[in-house]
Amino acid sequence: MSKKSLSERANAVMPPLAKRITELEIEKGRGAYLWDTKGKKYLDFSSGIGVTNLGHNHPYIVQKAQEQMEKLVHGCHNVVYYKPYVELAEKICHLAGGDHKLYFSNSGAEAVEGAIKLAKWATKRPGIIAFKRSFHGRTMGATTVTASNAQYRKEYEGLLPSVYFAEYPYTFRTGLTPEAETERCLQSIEDVFHYLIAPEKVAAILMEPVQGEGGYIVPPVQFVQAVRDLCDQHGILLIFDEVQTGFGRTGKMFAHEHFGVKPDIMSLAKGIANGFPLSAIVGKREVMDKWSSGAHGGTYGGNPISCAAGLGVIECLEQGGLDNAVLVGEYFIEKLHELAKKYSDIQDIRGLGLMIGMEFVTKEGKPNAHKVHQLQEKALEKGLLLLSCGVDKNVIRFIPPVIIRKEHVDEAIDIIDDCLNEIGK
């Protein structure tokens, strides 16, 4: 009898929704690399979907976690206080600009759920405005405000009431100038106010400062600033979903720093603890102080080990990780532009720091998801792990660890060049 693979064993005990992007059976990870059970090495430019921002098994993060594991694994924040929980909260609130408060959860979706609940509780208003192509998570509330794929909502309708969607800027697709695209999208919000829900009944506008699954789309600065002004005008809370964009991904601790705008509430997760489950809802003090005892909760949020790891993450980012993301990110984008000169179906390169999208389009001007799928498959064969994104699945999203060097970029570019050359037109 042949020995069953891990994928076969997993599929025997897990539902179809647990299907993986690859069939890789991974034995270990270190830095920017993974090794499978047969010893093959892969350059990982997915980082566990933007989680291991400092690379796999970063030695300092592992050390911090091990030290905490010897002291306390779980105490429950509802019952006792413990040092890493408070220290990490203090640090993140300081990074958010001071005069903030924080509540820890376990996942990005939980943080989004909490942010929505907080906004409703603090304003006593029912409405939420989100954006088309957005992705915010898979729980019921997070699914409600997600608009990147109808499959995520299928069979779960109806979801939360009083959720409305506006247009998110995508200048590459519309062909408009940043100014004209900003005006178009702002008008879509005004249309929501005019036709669907009065602004004084809207609790929050929820947005990704850079859209993730929607296509790694960077909005114009003036759009983000105008949304902030619109919220201030109508007493609406601005929520930034920084689950994927936070903790160094864009070369800043938080992506909103690129736009000169501060949110009222943020949801944080993914890179916060470099692989240990943790998330946070961060809000301005005057908003958080309205969230009274019993209005929200959870058992595992703020696990001591995860918090210890989170403190290590911030330390590493402040001691060179952020600067490296900017430096190597600029080099990566430069190399991708050179690659685009060789292959006409690479039609757009965009991104901030090491959150970079490469969009493929056919000669007829249609999204080229097939080419992206071919590239992913061939790259994996050659030892490079890539992920796609975009509503049409025609964007390669590069999410390498922020600790990568230029040599890693060169290695990835060479593999991608070889793959595209083999695929042909």
Automatic annotation (TrEMBL):
<keyword id="KW-0032">Aminotransferase</keyword>
<dbReference type="InterPro" id="IPR015424">
    <property type="entry name" value="PyrdxlP-dep_Trfase"/>
</dbReference>
<dbReference type="InterPro" id="IPR015421">
    <property type="entry name" value="PyrdxlP-dep_Trfase_major"/>
</dbReference>
<dbReference type="InterPro" id="IPR005814">
    <property type="entry name" value="Aminotrans_3"/>
</dbReference>
<keyword id="KW-0808">Transferase</keyword>
<protein>
    <submittedName>
        <fullName>Aspartate aminotransferase family protein</fullName>
    </submittedName>
</protein>
<dbReference type="InterPro" id="IPR015422">
    <property type="entry name" value="PyrdxlP-dep_Trfase_small"/>
</dbReference>
<dbReference type="InterPro" id="IPR049704">
    <property type="entry name" value="Aminotrans_3_PPA_site"/>
</dbReference>
<dbReference type="InterPro" id="IPR050103">
    <property type="entry name" value="Class-III_PLP-dep_AT"/>
</dbReference>
<keyword id="KW-0663">Pyridoxal phosphate</keyword>
<dbReference type="GO" id="GO:0008483">
    <property type="term" value="F:transaminase activity"/>
</dbReference>
<comment type="similarity">
    <text>Belongs to the class-III pyridoxal-phosphate-dependent aminotransferase family.</text>
</comment>
<dbReference type="Pfam" id="PF00202">
    <property type="entry name" value="Aminotran_3"/>
</dbReference>
